[in-house]
Specification:
The structure holds 2 protein chains of 2 kinds. Chain A is mainly α. Chain A contains 9 helices and no strands. Chain B has a 3-stranded antiparallel beta sheet, covered by helices on one side. In chain B, strands 1-2 form a two-stranded antiparallel ribbon. In chain B, strand 3 and strand 4 form a beta hairpin. Chains A and B meet through helix 2 and helix 5 of A and helix 1 of B.
Chain lengths: 242, 120
């Protein structure tokens, strides 16, 4: 498969897996209004994944469809970031995962909307409006919880310690990732996150070892469980339609 | 601090002297209630669409966006904390509104309008 197809799949996989994780909150949100908010974000992400998969499917040909890409690939074929497959944890951890990812996606899609590939540029431009809202919503929550009660502050700090090690991967180019300037994105990302953390009275971790591998198909143990649930119907009843 | 207030639900005219339900809320753990007004199109008025809970005005607007505008219902949102809305008492509906019932002459329907006047 060409590097460009791999890259398109990588973008789709990020959105699909985070969309699937967020969807687990459906019916379990802390209050009704936030239950709807996180589910809306989940649907936005799955919509993005569809756009990337549909495009990838036309590039691959051979009868590939968006469905076969989502439901019939194996764990090692998924190229999503390790960050998006991490457990939901408490509300604070879900919020922080969303914030880290949305801030990244926001900067990434700003570059991609100027991509020389018209399809990718169009998907990035369309998605950017959604992502702008995801970023606003999640950063306000990080501030609200970080600068909230003793307990909410402590939980946010714990979530940072849990998830920070998965942020380094975002800025390390995979073999197929030649279309964006990740060092600029890294610099901007750190600055923005620092600003939100300062307002939220949260500590940014000092240099720690960063986990990588997701972009190349080497995942944490969590992805297998996610795919088991996500792909269950197609695996149990191949070709099933409803 | 506990605060108690009397809440009437829409169209809920109490049958006895009891009025609406007495709702108690612990202001420390419960988010306040907000009323939501949506303008569906430029040029139209904001209309009351419902209520929701939120910790502050910013969150109320975002919650309203997610709860009430996901199917393209609106282009603008107002929120106001429910406690700032003062309502007429349903028990006083008689003296408040019934005197107007037999005064149809207050509708300007007894004038002959020239054809050029369109919007009356």
């Amino acid at each position: 498969m060409s590097p460009f197809i791999d890259y398109t799949l990588h973008l789709g996989d990020n959105s699909l897996i985070l969309g699937q994780k967020n969807a687990e909150w459906c019916g379990h949100g802390p209050v009704l209004e936030q239950d709807i908010a996180i589910t809306n974000i989940s649907l936005d992400l799955i919509g993005q994944a569809r756009n990337f998969y549909q495009y990838a499917a036309t590039l691959i040909g051979d009868g590939t469809t968006e469905d076969s890409l989502a439901y019939l690939r194996k764990e090692r074929e998924f190229k999503n970031l390790l960050l998006v497959e991490q457990p939901n944890g408490d509300w604070g951890q879900t919020i922080l995962r969303q914030f880290f990812f949305s801030q990244y996606q926001y900067l990434l899609f700003q570059q991609l909307q100027n991509s020389s590939d018209k399809h990718i540029a169009a998907i990035a431009e369309k998605s950017l409006k959604e992502v702008t809202y995801h970023l606003r919503w999640s950063s306000e929550w990080v501030i609200r919880l970080g600068d909230g009660t003793d307990e909410s502050h402590q939980r946010m700090q714990k979530a940072i310690d849990e998830l920070w090690r998965y942020t380094g991967e975002m800025f390390e180019a995979a073999s197929y990732e030649t279309h964006v300037d990740l060092s600029t994105i890294k610099e901007q990302w750190i600055n923005k996150v620092k600003k939100v953390f300062d307002e939220a009275t949260l500590q940014m971790p000092v240099k720690i070892f960063m986990q990588t591998g997701g972009k190349e198909g080497k995942h944490t143990e969590h992805l297998g469980y996610i795919l088991t649930e996500l792909q269950y119907m197609q695996r149990a009843y191949p070709g099933c339609e409803w | 601090m506990k605060n108690y207030f009397r809440r009437y639900y829409y169209g809920d005219i109490p049958e006895d002297k009891a009025g609406g339900n007495i709702v108690s809320s612990d202001s420390k753990s419960d988010w306040p209630l907000w009323e939501v007004f949506i303008r569906s199109k430029q040029g139209l008025d904001h209309k009351h669409v419902g209520s929701l809970h939120a910790a502050d005005a910013q969150m109320a607007i975002e919650n309203a966006r997610d709860v009430y505008t996901r199917r393209m219902e609106g282009v603008s949102i107002w929120v106001v904390e429910s406690k700032y809305i003062h309502a007429s008492n349903p028990e006083e509906a008689g003296e408040m509104f019934e005197p107007a019932v037999d005064k149809i002459y207050r509708h300007p329907t007894f004038y002959d309008l020239p054809d050029e006047v369109n919007h009356m």
